[in-house]
Amino acid sequence: MKQLLTSIAKVIRSKNCSPFDLTMDIIIKDKEIYCRMKNAQAVNKKIVAKAYRIPESNIRSVIYFDPAQAVKITMRRVISSGAPGDTDVYGAQQHAPLLKMKVDF
User: Fold this and answer.
1) Secondary structure tally for the chain: helices H, strands E
2) Considering the domain boundaries, does residue 50 fall inside one?
């Protein structure tokens, strides 16, 4: 069943992991939904790359973290933090494409 991430997550956020990488956290409200998502690998490199319109090779990892019922995504920044042209030095606004993402599980 396809669902909008915003309907099943209590937190969707982004931040810098380093000047060159971003990390996104998706914390799921319900344990059963989290387990179904994990089993289906509903959030994976392919769909994240599609949502961000970047090559899949730019997605460094997608990790399911059971204790927090969370999915952690790490990807390369398009422009390093603080470099000329960077519009979000902290990486705090980079989760927006996830807000529109639908996952199938």
Assistant:
1) 4, 6
2) yes
